[in-house]
Design goal:
The complex is a heterodimer of chains A (248) and B (269). Chain A is of the alpha/beta class and 248 residues long. In chain A, 37% of the residues lie in helices and 25% in strands. Chain A is built from 9 helices and 10 strands. A 6-stranded mixed β-sheet of chain A has the order 6-7-8-3-9-10, sandwiched between helices. Classes of the chains: A alpha/beta (248), B mainly alpha (269).
Chain lengths: 248, 269
Protein backbone atom coordinates (compact mmCIF):
# COMPACT_ATOMS: atom_id res chain seq x y z
CA UNK A 1 0.00 0.00 0.00
CA UNK A 2 1.23 3.49 -0.76
CA UNK A 3 -0.07 4.47 2.68
CA UNK A 4 3.08 3.02 4.15
CA UNK A 5 5.18 5.69 2.53
CA UNK A 6 3.02 8.50 3.87
CA UNK A 7 3.87 10.14 7.15
CA UNK A 8 1.96 8.94 10.16
CA UNK A 9 0.32 11.76 12.12
CA UNK A 10 -1.04 9.50 14.85
CA UNK A 11 0.20 6.04 15.75
CA UNK A 12 -1.65 4.19 18.52
CA UNK A 13 -0.48 0.78 19.63
CA UNK A 14 -2.34 -1.49 22.04
CA UNK A 15 -3.92 1.41 23.90
CA UNK A 16 -5.72 0.45 27.11
CA UNK A 17 -7.75 2.76 29.31
CA UNK A 18 -9.76 1.92 32.40
CA UNK A 19 -12.44 3.94 34.14
CA UNK A 20 -12.51 2.13 37.46
CA UNK A 21 -13.06 -1.48 36.42
CA UNK A 22 -14.61 -0.51 33.09
CA UNK A 23 -12.35 -1.12 30.11
CA UNK A 24 -12.99 2.01 28.04
CA UNK A 25 -10.27 1.22 25.51
CA UNK A 26 -9.30 -2.39 24.95
CA UNK A 27 -5.95 -2.74 23.14
CA UNK A 28 -6.78 -0.25 20.41
CA UNK A 29 -4.32 0.23 17.57
CA UNK A 30 -4.86 2.89 14.95
CA UNK A 31 -2.70 4.80 12.48
CA UNK A 32 -3.82 8.08 10.97
CA UNK A 33 -1.80 9.48 8.08
CA UNK A 34 -0.92 13.05 7.27
CA UNK A 35 -3.85 14.69 5.47
CA UNK A 36 -6.25 11.86 6.18
CA UNK A 37 -9.85 12.41 7.30
CA UNK A 38 -11.01 9.72 9.70
CA UNK A 39 -14.51 9.48 11.09
CA UNK A 40 -15.14 7.43 14.23
CA UNK A 41 -18.63 6.10 14.84
CA UNK A 42 -20.12 3.81 17.44
CA UNK A 43 -22.78 3.59 20.12
CA UNK A 44 -22.46 5.76 23.22
CA UNK A 45 -20.01 4.31 25.70
CA UNK A 46 -18.09 2.56 22.95
CA UNK A 47 -14.91 4.48 23.80
CA UNK A 48 -14.77 6.74 20.76
CA UNK A 49 -14.53 10.00 22.73
CA UNK A 50 -11.99 8.44 25.09
CA UNK A 51 -9.92 7.38 22.09
CA UNK A 52 -10.01 10.92 20.69
CA UNK A 53 -9.21 12.53 24.05
CA UNK A 54 -6.26 10.24 24.61
CA UNK A 55 -4.62 11.61 21.44
CA UNK A 56 -3.98 14.98 23.12
CA UNK A 57 -3.67 13.42 26.56
CA UNK A 58 -6.86 14.85 28.03
CA UNK A 59 -7.21 11.22 29.08
CA UNK A 60 -4.14 9.45 30.41
CA UNK A 61 -3.97 5.91 29.12
CA UNK A 62 -3.15 2.89 31.27
CA UNK A 63 -1.29 0.85 28.67
CA UNK A 64 0.08 0.90 25.14
CA UNK A 65 1.68 3.82 23.33
CA UNK A 66 0.59 6.84 21.33
CA UNK A 67 2.86 8.78 18.97
CA UNK A 68 1.53 12.11 17.71
CA UNK A 69 3.43 13.99 15.01
CA UNK A 70 6.56 12.02 15.90
CA UNK A 71 6.33 12.64 19.67
CA UNK A 72 5.66 9.74 21.97
CA UNK A 73 3.12 11.41 24.27
CA UNK A 74 3.03 8.45 26.62
CA UNK A 75 6.67 9.17 27.49
CA UNK A 76 6.66 11.33 30.65
CA UNK A 77 9.64 13.30 29.28
CA UNK A 78 7.60 14.56 26.33
CA UNK A 79 6.37 18.14 26.82
CA UNK A 80 2.67 17.59 26.17
CA UNK A 81 2.01 21.33 25.84
CA UNK A 82 4.29 21.45 22.79
CA UNK A 83 2.36 18.57 21.21
CA UNK A 84 -1.00 20.16 22.02
CA UNK A 85 0.05 23.35 20.22
CA UNK A 86 -0.07 21.30 17.03
CA UNK A 87 -3.31 19.48 17.83
CA UNK A 88 -6.54 21.47 17.76
CA UNK A 89 -9.61 20.18 19.55
CA UNK A 90 -13.30 20.98 19.20
CA UNK A 91 -15.66 19.87 21.97
CA UNK A 92 -19.28 18.84 22.05
CA UNK A 93 -20.04 21.60 24.58
CA UNK A 94 -18.04 24.25 22.61
CA UNK A 95 -16.18 25.38 25.74
CA UNK A 96 -15.67 28.90 24.44
CA UNK A 97 -14.26 31.31 27.02
CA UNK A 98 -17.27 33.32 28.26
CA UNK A 99 -15.19 36.11 29.84
CA UNK A 100 -13.43 36.91 26.57
CA UNK A 101 -14.82 38.45 23.40
CA UNK A 102 -14.98 36.29 20.29
CA UNK A 103 -11.81 37.94 19.00
CA UNK A 104 -10.02 37.43 22.34
CA UNK A 105 -11.08 33.78 22.32
CA UNK A 106 -9.03 33.43 19.15
CA UNK A 107 -6.05 35.56 20.15
CA UNK A 108 -5.47 34.34 23.73
CA UNK A 109 -3.54 31.15 23.00
CA UNK A 110 -1.78 32.72 20.02
CA UNK A 111 -0.35 35.40 22.30
CA UNK A 112 0.23 33.27 25.40
CA UNK A 113 1.36 30.01 23.79
CA UNK A 114 2.58 30.89 20.30
CA UNK A 115 4.05 34.20 21.53
CA UNK A 116 2.68 36.11 18.56
CA UNK A 117 2.21 39.87 18.74
CA UNK A 118 -1.28 41.17 19.40
CA UNK A 119 -1.34 42.71 15.94
CA UNK A 120 -0.41 39.48 14.14
CA UNK A 121 -2.78 37.32 16.17
CA UNK A 122 -5.69 39.70 15.57
CA UNK A 123 -5.04 39.56 11.85
CA UNK A 124 -5.02 35.75 11.86
CA UNK A 125 -8.12 35.74 14.08
CA UNK A 126 -10.07 38.07 11.82
CA UNK A 127 -9.21 36.06 8.73
CA UNK A 128 -10.47 32.92 10.43
CA UNK A 129 -13.64 34.58 11.71
CA UNK A 130 -14.36 35.69 8.16
CA UNK A 131 -13.76 32.15 6.99
CA UNK A 132 -16.25 30.65 9.47
CA UNK A 133 -18.68 33.47 8.68
CA UNK A 134 -18.88 35.37 11.98
CA UNK A 135 -16.48 38.27 11.56
CA UNK A 136 -19.27 40.70 12.46
CA UNK A 137 -19.43 39.09 15.94
CA UNK A 138 -15.74 39.70 16.71
CA UNK A 139 -16.43 42.20 19.50
CA UNK A 140 -19.32 40.28 21.07
CA UNK A 141 -19.14 37.97 24.05
CA UNK A 142 -19.80 34.34 23.07
CA UNK A 143 -22.71 33.98 25.51
CA UNK A 144 -24.67 36.29 23.20
CA UNK A 145 -24.17 33.87 20.29
CA UNK A 146 -26.21 30.87 19.18
CA UNK A 147 -24.86 27.35 19.69
CA UNK A 148 -23.88 27.05 16.06
CA UNK A 149 -22.03 30.35 16.18
CA UNK A 150 -20.27 29.38 19.42
CA UNK A 151 -19.10 26.15 17.87
CA UNK A 152 -17.77 28.04 14.86
CA UNK A 153 -15.87 30.31 17.26
CA UNK A 154 -14.46 27.19 18.92
CA UNK A 155 -13.35 25.78 15.56
CA UNK A 156 -11.75 29.08 14.59
CA UNK A 157 -10.06 29.29 18.01
CA UNK A 158 -8.44 25.89 17.45
CA UNK A 159 -7.44 26.80 13.88
CA UNK A 160 -5.82 30.04 15.04
CA UNK A 161 -2.98 27.94 16.45
CA UNK A 162 -2.43 26.61 12.92
CA UNK A 163 -2.46 23.00 14.07
CA UNK A 164 -1.37 20.02 12.01
CA UNK A 165 -4.18 17.84 13.31
CA UNK A 166 -7.76 18.63 14.29
CA UNK A 167 -9.81 16.51 16.68
CA UNK A 168 -13.61 16.91 16.74
CA UNK A 169 -15.49 15.34 19.63
CA UNK A 170 -19.15 15.11 18.56
CA UNK A 171 -19.10 18.73 17.40
CA UNK A 172 -22.77 18.84 16.39
CA UNK A 173 -24.39 16.68 19.08
CA UNK A 174 -25.26 19.58 21.38
CA UNK A 175 -26.70 21.72 18.59
CA UNK A 176 -30.28 22.35 17.57
CA UNK A 177 -30.96 20.65 14.21
CA UNK A 178 -31.14 23.90 12.26
CA UNK A 179 -27.60 24.80 13.34
CA UNK A 180 -25.90 21.53 12.50
CA UNK A 181 -25.55 22.47 8.84
CA UNK A 182 -23.60 25.67 9.42
CA UNK A 183 -21.03 23.84 11.55
CA UNK A 184 -20.72 20.92 9.14
CA UNK A 185 -20.23 23.35 6.25
CA UNK A 186 -17.23 24.84 8.03
CA UNK A 187 -15.83 21.39 8.71
CA UNK A 188 -16.25 20.31 5.07
CA UNK A 189 -14.49 23.47 3.91
CA UNK A 190 -11.68 22.72 6.33
CA UNK A 191 -11.41 19.11 5.22
CA UNK A 192 -11.02 20.17 1.60
CA UNK A 193 -8.02 22.32 2.56
CA UNK A 194 -6.12 19.15 3.41
CA UNK A 195 -5.67 19.30 7.20
CA UNK A 196 -5.60 15.98 9.04
CA UNK A 197 -8.91 15.42 10.84
CA UNK A 198 -10.24 12.85 13.27
CA UNK A 199 -13.93 13.31 13.86
CA UNK A 200 -16.22 11.53 16.30
CA UNK A 201 -19.69 12.03 14.86
CA UNK A 202 -22.88 10.35 13.76
CA UNK A 203 -23.26 12.64 10.75
CA UNK A 204 -22.89 10.02 8.02
CA UNK A 205 -23.54 12.61 5.34
CA UNK A 206 -20.40 14.39 6.46
CA UNK A 207 -18.52 11.09 6.56
CA UNK A 208 -19.59 10.27 3.00
CA UNK A 209 -18.61 13.70 1.71
CA UNK A 210 -15.14 14.07 3.19
CA UNK A 211 -13.83 11.04 5.03
CA UNK A 212 -11.21 8.66 3.71
CA UNK A 213 -11.98 6.07 6.32
CA UNK A 214 -14.72 5.26 8.81
CA UNK A 215 -13.96 3.40 12.01
CA UNK A 216 -16.66 1.59 13.96
CA UNK A 217 -16.04 1.16 17.68
CA UNK A 218 -17.90 -0.95 20.19
CA UNK A 219 -17.05 -1.82 23.80
CA UNK A 220 -13.64 -0.14 23.64
CA UNK A 221 -12.52 -1.92 20.49
CA UNK A 222 -12.27 -1.08 16.81
CA UNK A 223 -14.64 -3.64 15.33
CA UNK A 224 -14.57 -2.63 11.71
CA UNK A 225 -13.09 -0.05 9.40
CA UNK A 226 -13.63 0.85 5.78
CA UNK A 227 -14.80 3.47 3.34
CA UNK A 228 -18.02 5.36 4.08
CA UNK A 229 -19.63 3.48 1.19
CA UNK A 230 -18.72 0.18 2.79
CA UNK A 231 -20.65 1.16 5.90
CA UNK A 232 -23.62 2.39 3.89
CA UNK A 233 -23.83 -0.75 1.76
CA UNK A 234 -22.80 -3.76 3.76
CA UNK A 235 -21.01 -3.54 7.07
CA UNK A 236 -19.63 -6.94 8.09
CA UNK A 237 -20.35 -7.08 11.83
CA UNK A 238 -23.85 -7.46 13.18
CA UNK A 239 -23.19 -4.71 15.72
CA UNK A 240 -22.16 -2.33 12.95
CA UNK A 241 -25.20 -3.28 10.84
CA UNK A 242 -27.49 -2.68 13.80
CA UNK A 243 -25.83 0.65 14.57
CA UNK A 244 -26.05 1.87 10.98
CA UNK A 245 -29.74 1.00 10.89
CA UNK A 246 -30.28 3.08 14.00
CA UNK A 247 -28.54 6.24 12.83
CA UNK A 248 -29.64 6.30 9.19
CA UNK B 1 -41.72 -3.97 67.71
CA UNK B 2 -44.24 -1.59 66.20
CA UNK B 3 -43.34 1.43 68.38
CA UNK B 4 -39.70 1.01 67.43
CA UNK B 5 -40.56 1.33 63.79
CA UNK B 6 -42.62 4.40 64.58
CA UNK B 7 -39.71 5.94 66.39
CA UNK B 8 -37.50 5.54 63.39
CA UNK B 9 -39.92 7.13 61.02
CA UNK B 10 -39.30 10.83 61.72
CA UNK B 11 -35.57 10.33 61.41
CA UNK B 12 -35.99 8.81 57.98
CA UNK B 13 -38.22 11.61 56.85
CA UNK B 14 -36.05 14.39 58.21
CA UNK B 15 -35.07 16.61 55.31
CA UNK B 16 -31.64 18.03 54.79
CA UNK B 17 -31.92 21.76 55.33
CA UNK B 18 -29.20 24.27 54.58
CA UNK B 19 -29.15 27.22 56.91
CA UNK B 20 -27.26 30.14 55.44
CA UNK B 21 -26.44 32.64 58.14
CA UNK B 22 -23.24 34.21 56.85
CA UNK B 23 -20.74 35.74 59.19
CA UNK B 24 -20.80 39.38 58.16
CA UNK B 25 -23.66 41.77 58.67
CA UNK B 26 -26.64 40.37 56.81
CA UNK B 27 -26.47 41.49 53.21
CA UNK B 28 -29.81 42.95 52.20
CA UNK B 29 -31.37 41.76 48.95
CA UNK B 30 -34.33 43.46 47.40
CA UNK B 31 -36.43 40.30 47.47
CA UNK B 32 -35.90 40.05 51.22
CA UNK B 33 -38.27 42.87 52.15
CA UNK B 34 -38.01 42.40 55.91
CA UNK B 35 -34.25 42.56 55.96
CA UNK B 36 -34.20 45.42 53.50
CA UNK B 37 -36.42 47.51 55.74
CA UNK B 38 -34.42 46.50 58.81
CA UNK B 39 -31.29 47.67 57.03
CA UNK B 40 -32.84 51.11 56.41
CA UNK B 41 -34.10 51.44 59.95
CA UNK B 42 -30.75 50.44 61.44
CA UNK B 43 -28.59 52.48 59.08
CA UNK B 44 -30.53 55.72 59.06
CA UNK B 45 -31.52 55.26 62.69
CA UNK B 46 -27.87 54.99 63.72
CA UNK B 47 -26.97 58.10 61.75
CA UNK B 48 -29.94 59.99 63.22
CA UNK B 49 -28.93 59.02 66.75
CA UNK B 50 -25.34 60.11 66.16
CA UNK B 51 -26.48 63.46 64.76
CA UNK B 52 -29.00 63.90 67.57
CA UNK B 53 -26.41 63.20 70.25
CA UNK B 54 -23.85 65.51 68.67
CA UNK B 55 -26.30 68.37 68.39
CA UNK B 56 -28.36 68.08 71.56
CA UNK B 57 -25.90 66.35 73.93
CA UNK B 58 -22.55 67.83 72.87
CA UNK B 59 -21.12 67.14 76.29
CA UNK B 60 -19.70 64.48 76.34
CA UNK B 61 -20.76 63.11 72.93
CA UNK B 62 -19.09 65.70 70.74
CA UNK B 63 -15.84 65.22 72.64
CA UNK B 64 -16.08 61.45 72.09
CA UNK B 65 -16.80 61.95 68.42
CA UNK B 66 -13.75 64.14 68.07
CA UNK B 67 -11.57 61.59 69.85
CA UNK B 68 -12.45 58.27 68.17
CA UNK B 69 -12.21 59.00 64.38
CA UNK B 70 -8.41 58.47 64.46
CA UNK B 71 -9.27 54.92 65.42
CA UNK B 72 -11.53 54.46 62.40
CA UNK B 73 -8.53 55.02 60.15
CA UNK B 74 -6.48 52.46 62.06
CA UNK B 75 -9.37 50.00 61.94
CA UNK B 76 -9.49 50.39 58.15
CA UNK B 77 -5.72 50.15 57.91
CA UNK B 78 -5.69 46.86 59.84
CA UNK B 79 -8.68 45.55 57.87
CA UNK B 80 -7.35 46.41 54.43
CA UNK B 81 -3.82 45.15 55.09
CA UNK B 82 -5.16 41.95 56.66
CA UNK B 83 -7.58 41.26 53.81
CA UNK B 84 -4.79 41.74 51.25
CA UNK B 85 -2.61 39.27 53.13
CA UNK B 86 -5.58 36.92 53.52
CA UNK B 87 -6.28 37.09 49.76
CA UNK B 88 -2.70 36.18 48.89
CA UNK B 89 -2.62 33.33 51.42
CA UNK B 90 -6.13 32.30 50.38
CA UNK B 91 -5.24 32.08 46.69
CA UNK B 92 -2.30 29.77 47.37
CA UNK B 93 -4.28 27.76 49.92
CA UNK B 94 -7.16 27.35 47.48
CA UNK B 95 -4.77 26.22 44.74
CA UNK B 96 -3.09 23.89 47.23
CA UNK B 97 -6.41 22.39 48.25
CA UNK B 98 -7.18 21.37 44.66
CA UNK B 99 -3.60 20.29 43.87
CA UNK B 100 -3.10 16.65 42.91
CA UNK B 101 0.29 16.57 44.64
CA UNK B 102 -0.50 14.90 47.98
CA UNK B 103 2.16 16.86 49.90
CA UNK B 104 0.98 20.30 48.75
CA UNK B 105 -2.64 19.29 49.20
CA UNK B 106 -1.88 17.92 52.66
CA UNK B 107 -0.11 21.08 53.81
CA UNK B 108 -2.92 23.33 52.55
CA UNK B 109 -5.62 21.15 54.13
CA UNK B 110 -3.75 20.93 57.42
CA UNK B 111 -3.37 24.71 57.52
CA UNK B 112 -7.09 25.19 56.98
CA UNK B 113 -8.04 22.65 59.64
CA UNK B 114 -5.61 23.97 62.25
CA UNK B 115 -6.33 27.66 61.77
CA UNK B 116 -10.10 27.21 61.71
CA UNK B 117 -9.87 25.24 64.92
CA UNK B 118 -8.18 27.99 66.95
CA UNK B 119 -10.01 31.14 68.04
CA UNK B 120 -8.76 34.34 66.45
CA UNK B 121 -8.12 35.90 69.85
CA UNK B 122 -5.85 33.00 70.79
CA UNK B 123 -4.03 33.34 67.46
CA UNK B 124 -3.48 37.03 68.13
CA UNK B 125 -2.04 36.28 71.57
CA UNK B 126 0.04 33.50 70.12
CA UNK B 127 1.68 35.61 67.42
CA UNK B 128 2.18 38.70 69.55
CA UNK B 129 3.07 37.26 72.96
CA UNK B 130 4.15 33.65 72.46
CA UNK B 131 6.11 34.10 69.23
CA UNK B 132 7.20 37.48 70.56
CA UNK B 133 9.79 35.58 72.58
CA UNK B 134 11.45 34.54 69.33
CA UNK B 135 10.80 37.50 67.02
CA UNK B 136 9.75 40.82 68.47
CA UNK B 137 7.24 42.47 66.17
CA UNK B 138 5.41 45.76 66.73
CA UNK B 139 1.69 45.43 67.50
CA UNK B 140 0.35 46.49 64.11
CA UNK B 141 2.33 44.00 61.97
CA UNK B 142 1.56 41.28 64.53
CA UNK B 143 -2.13 42.06 64.31
CA UNK B 144 -2.12 42.10 60.49
CA UNK B 145 -0.13 38.87 60.36
CA UNK B 146 -2.46 37.07 62.76
CA UNK B 147 -5.64 38.30 61.07
CA UNK B 148 -4.21 37.57 57.59
CA UNK B 149 -3.23 34.03 58.54
CA UNK B 150 -6.58 33.39 60.19
CA UNK B 151 -8.72 34.79 57.38
CA UNK B 152 -6.42 33.25 54.77
CA UNK B 153 -7.74 29.83 55.80
CA UNK B 154 -11.35 30.89 55.26
CA UNK B 155 -10.40 32.70 52.06
CA UNK B 156 -8.69 29.51 50.84
CA UNK B 157 -11.98 27.67 51.01
CA UNK B 158 -13.69 30.47 49.08
CA UNK B 159 -11.02 30.32 46.37
CA UNK B 160 -11.27 26.53 46.23
CA UNK B 161 -15.04 26.62 45.81
CA UNK B 162 -14.79 29.43 43.25
CA UNK B 163 -12.23 27.59 41.14
CA UNK B 164 -14.19 24.34 41.33
CA UNK B 165 -17.37 26.11 40.21
CA UNK B 166 -15.88 26.64 36.74
CA UNK B 167 -16.80 23.77 34.36
CA UNK B 168 -14.02 21.28 33.61
CA UNK B 169 -14.44 21.94 29.88
CA UNK B 170 -12.87 25.37 30.33
CA UNK B 171 -9.63 23.87 31.61
CA UNK B 172 -9.72 21.22 28.90
CA UNK B 173 -10.20 23.84 26.18
CA UNK B 174 -7.32 25.92 27.54
CA UNK B 175 -5.01 22.93 27.91
CA UNK B 176 -5.91 21.61 24.44
CA UNK B 177 -4.64 24.92 23.03
CA UNK B 178 -1.24 24.19 24.56
CA UNK B 179 -1.56 26.36 27.66
CA UNK B 180 0.28 25.18 30.74
CA UNK B 181 -1.64 24.53 33.93
CA UNK B 182 -0.71 27.93 35.36
CA UNK B 183 -1.49 29.78 32.11
CA UNK B 184 -4.92 28.18 32.01
CA UNK B 185 -5.49 29.04 35.68
CA UNK B 186 -4.39 32.65 35.21
CA UNK B 187 -6.02 33.47 31.86
CA UNK B 188 -9.12 31.26 31.88
CA UNK B 189 -10.16 29.91 35.28
CA UNK B 190 -9.36 32.66 37.81
CA UNK B 191 -10.95 35.52 35.83
CA UNK B 192 -14.17 33.51 35.69
CA UNK B 193 -13.94 32.34 39.31
CA UNK B 194 -13.48 35.97 40.35
CA UNK B 195 -17.18 36.68 39.78
CA UNK B 196 -18.20 33.84 42.07
CA UNK B 197 -15.59 34.73 44.65
CA UNK B 198 -16.23 38.45 44.94
CA UNK B 199 -19.44 38.43 47.04
CA UNK B 200 -18.14 36.00 49.71
CA UNK B 201 -14.84 37.92 49.81
CA UNK B 202 -16.85 41.07 50.46
CA UNK B 203 -18.58 39.24 53.29
CA UNK B 204 -15.23 38.23 54.75
CA UNK B 205 -14.13 41.86 54.54
CA UNK B 206 -17.05 42.97 56.70
CA UNK B 207 -16.49 40.09 59.11
CA UNK B 208 -12.80 40.93 59.31
CA UNK B 209 -13.55 44.57 59.98
CA UNK B 210 -15.62 43.58 62.97
CA UNK B 211 -13.06 41.06 64.18
CA UNK B 212 -10.37 43.72 63.85
CA UNK B 213 -11.72 45.16 67.12
CA UNK B 214 -9.86 42.26 68.77
CA UNK B 215 -6.52 43.86 67.91
CA UNK B 216 -7.24 46.61 70.41
CA UNK B 217 -5.89 44.26 73.08
CA UNK B 218 -2.47 44.43 71.40
CA UNK B 219 -2.45 48.19 72.00
CA UNK B 220 -3.21 48.96 68.34
CA UNK B 221 -5.06 52.28 68.48
CA UNK B 222 -8.12 51.19 66.49
CA UNK B 223 -11.69 52.38 66.92
CA UNK B 224 -12.38 50.26 69.99
CA UNK B 225 -9.01 51.08 71.57
CA UNK B 226 -9.60 54.80 71.14
CA UNK B 227 -12.96 54.35 72.81
CA UNK B 228 -11.37 52.48 75.70
CA UNK B 229 -8.77 55.22 76.14
CA UNK B 230 -11.42 57.92 76.22
CA UNK B 231 -13.66 56.00 78.59
CA UNK B 232 -10.80 55.22 80.95
CA UNK B 233 -9.97 58.91 81.31
CA UNK B 234 -13.46 60.38 81.41
CA UNK B 235 -15.36 57.48 83.05
CA UNK B 236 -18.08 58.00 80.39
CA UNK B 237 -18.29 54.27 79.67
CA UNK B 238 -21.93 54.22 78.56
CA UNK B 239 -21.63 57.23 76.27
CA UNK B 240 -18.30 56.19 74.75
CA UNK B 241 -19.23 52.61 73.95
CA UNK B 242 -22.57 53.76 72.55
CA UNK B 243 -20.70 55.90 70.04
CA UNK B 244 -18.21 53.12 69.27
CA UNK B 245 -21.02 50.62 68.68
CA UNK B 246 -22.93 53.06 66.46
CA UNK B 247 -19.86 53.83 64.38
CA UNK B 248 -19.14 50.09 63.84
CA UNK B 249 -22.78 49.58 62.93
CA UNK B 250 -22.83 52.40 60.38
CA UNK B 251 -19.59 51.19 58.77
CA UNK B 252 -20.63 47.54 58.49
CA UNK B 253 -24.13 48.36 57.26
CA UNK B 254 -22.70 50.71 54.67
CA UNK B 255 -20.20 48.12 53.46
CA UNK B 256 -22.84 45.37 53.36
CA UNK B 257 -24.97 47.57 51.16
CA UNK B 258 -22.03 48.30 48.91
CA UNK B 259 -21.39 44.57 48.51
CA UNK B 260 -25.00 43.81 47.69
CA UNK B 261 -25.00 46.51 45.00
CA UNK B 262 -21.77 45.09 43.61
CA UNK B 263 -23.26 41.59 43.66
CA UNK B 264 -26.34 42.75 41.75
CA UNK B 265 -24.15 44.44 39.15
CA UNK B 266 -22.11 41.28 38.67
CA UNK B 267 -25.09 38.98 38.29
CA UNK B 268 -26.70 41.47 35.89
CA UNK B 269 -23.69 41.84 33.59
Amino acid sequence: MQDNQRRKMVEMKGVVKFFGSLRALDRVSLDVYDGEKVVIIGPSGSGKSTLLRSINKLEEIDGGSIIVDGHEITDPKTNINKVREEVGMVFQQFNVFPHKTVLENLTLAQIVVRKRSRHDSEKIAKDLLAKVGILEKAKEYPTKLSGGQQQRVAIARALAMQPKLMLFDEPTSALDPEMIGEVLDVMVKLAKEGITMIVVTHEMGFAREVSDRVIFMDEGRILEEGSPEHFFKNPTHDRAKQFMRQIL
Amino acid sequence: MAPLADDKKPIKEAKHVTIDVGDGAAIPKREDVGLFTAWRVAFFGAIAIIVYLAVFRPDPYLAIMKFVPDGILVTFEVTVLSIILALVIGLFTGLGRIAKNPLINGIASLYVEVIRGIPLLVQLFYIYFALGRLIQMPPLPSAVLAMGICYGAYMGEIFRAGIQSIPKGQTEAARSLGMTQSQSMYHVILPQAFKTILPPVGNEFVALLKDSSLVSILAVADLLRRGREFAAESFNYFETYTVVALVYLIITLFLSKLISIMEEKISAG
